[in-house]
């Protein structure tokens, strides 16, 4: 390693300053040096010289401040790593868990001071406090990823978040927090469709969810190209999500504090990249055929006043499936060569978004009295009905787009409906 040399220099006005200098690698057989002057003392010049030499010897690597708090580092990680590799919805989920759970407990500590014992105690406390294993697992993943990034950027020499353990052989101190998706009985489903009949904006998305078990984002991301009327299938190629754009102070002032937003809808890959083609029953097929023909007639009737939507690129491109990070495919009314023919839309062509499901939930809670209903209730009901009828569990898993069959087994084999109980009671009697 080169040596830092400090020497005196005099400015034109006679003032004495100090300069550091060190040798660089030879280039073309010629010697090169790096110098910088203007320091008031030898100590300042030498310290700056050593810093510059260290950065040079480490190929321009910047020496970081390892006294940074874990809270500030997490902000740095989100900005410089996650926003380059993760989807918008994923980042929002990260930020929520960081804000609610990680920063309050660990954020104030210097990142270099946090050790494995601190992190293991944090994970164990979450488990004992009744958080679900899924929630604890996701928080553990955030610790692992953020500390790996800290090692990569030289904030710490090694990650303390290695081999953290979620307790499995002991009961938590408090009951596990778990929101149980409910199974809707036939009379409850009938009530929902009596309240949201054919012709209402919620009818089509509710019917699709009930007859296919698709996730809400997948339902509202459907376009007519995804429906194969001949082979009676739906292909799940994407989901739709909302990007909440940030407004400047000037924009907030202009809108006088109203909810006008810079946000927009966009297509992204299905959850867990669960691309799939699923069968549809004759009842849903007839409903969709009727809806398609209705939209064709409405488009002709409204003519130039019919709403049209477009995306940045073709939404069914096979290349999207091979990308590590699915590019955000913005949807808008500015004309491009890629028109989006949504399945869920009103008579005038305007898009029926997933926000309508918030209105549905309120009505179902307050008017119909089904207080545990949420947007996943119809998906859960569909999956349970398949199990009731004896469908193979691998068929249910692939139809619902679960990451693996274990998830399907955990959710649907633990729900004993009247039909399942009756069928198995008959089976029990035939055994003897």
Automatic annotation (TrEMBL):
Alphabetical list of InterPro entries matching this protein = AP2-like_int_N, CB, DNA_brk_join_enz, Integrase-like_cat_sf, Integrase_catalytic, Integrase_recombinase_N, Integrase_SAM-like_N, Tyrosine_recombinase_XerCD
Name of one Pfam family that matches: Phage_integrase
Q: Which Gene3D superfamilies match?
A: 1.10.150.130, Intergrase catalytic core
Q: Which parts of the sequence belong to the Core-binding (CB) domain?
A: 72-151
Leader sequence range is: none
MF annotations from Gene Ontology: DNA binding
**Could you tell me the keywords of this UniProt record?**
DNA integration, DNA recombination, DNA-binding
Entry function: Site-specific tyrosine recombinase, which acts by catalyzing the cutting and rejoining of the recombining DNA molecules.
Q: Which family does it belong to?
A: Belongs to the 'phage' integrase family.
Protein's name in the database? Site-specific integrase
Organism equals: Agathobacter rectalis
């Amino acid at each position: 390693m080169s040596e830092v040399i400090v020497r005196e220099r005099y400015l034109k006005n006679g003032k004495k300053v100090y300069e550091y200098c060190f040798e660089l690698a030879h280039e073309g057989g010629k010697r090169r040096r790096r110098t910088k002057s203007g320091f008031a003392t030898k100590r300042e010049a030498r310290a700056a010289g050593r810093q510059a030499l260290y950065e040079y010897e480490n190929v321009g690597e910047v020496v970081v401040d390892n006294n940074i708090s874990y809270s500030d580092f997490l902000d740095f990680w989100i900005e410089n790593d996650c926003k380059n590799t993760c989807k918008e919805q994923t980042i929002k989920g990260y930020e929520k868990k960081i804000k609610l759970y990680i920063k309050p407990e660990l954020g104030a500590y210097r990142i270099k001071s946090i050790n494995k014992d601190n992190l293991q105690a944090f994970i164990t406390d979450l488990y004992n406090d009744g958080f679900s294993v899924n929630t604890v697992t996701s928080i553990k993943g955030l610790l692992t990823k953020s500390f790996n990034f800290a090692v990569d950027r030289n904030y710490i020499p090694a990650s303390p978040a290695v081999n953290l353990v979620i307790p499995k052989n002991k009961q938590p101190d408090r009951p596990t927090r778990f929101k149980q998706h409910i199974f809707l009985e036939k009379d409850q489903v009938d009530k929902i469709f009596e309240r949201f009949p054919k012709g209402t904006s919620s009818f089509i998305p509710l019917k699709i969810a009930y007859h296919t078990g698709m996730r809400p984002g997948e339902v509202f991301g459907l376009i007519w190209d995804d429906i194969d009327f001949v082979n009676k299938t739906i292909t799940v190629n994407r989901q739709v999500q909302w990007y909440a754009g940030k407004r400047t102070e000037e924009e907030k002032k202009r809108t006088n504090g109203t909810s006008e937003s810079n946000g927009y809808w966009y297509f992204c890959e299905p959850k867990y990249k669960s691309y799939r083609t699923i069968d549809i029953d004759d009842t849903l097929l007839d409903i969709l055929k009727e809806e398609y023909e209705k939209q064709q007639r409405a488009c002709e009737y409204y003519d130039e006043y019919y709403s049209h939507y477009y995306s940045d690129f073709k939404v069914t491109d096979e290349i999207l499936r091979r990308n590590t990070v699915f590019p955000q495919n913005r949807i808008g009314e500015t004309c491009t060569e890629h028109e989006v023919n949504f399945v869920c839309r009103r008579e005038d062509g305007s898009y029926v978004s997933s926000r309508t499901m918030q209105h549905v939930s309120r009505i179902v809670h307050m008017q119909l009295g089904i207080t545990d209903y949420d947007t996943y209730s119809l998906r859960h009901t569909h999956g349970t009905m398949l199990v009731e009828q004896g469908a193979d569990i691998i068929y249910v898993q692939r139809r619902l787009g679960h990451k693996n069959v274990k998830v399907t087994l955990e959710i649907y084999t633990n729900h004993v409906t009247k039909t399942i109980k009756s069928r198995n009671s008959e089976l029990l009697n035939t055994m003897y």
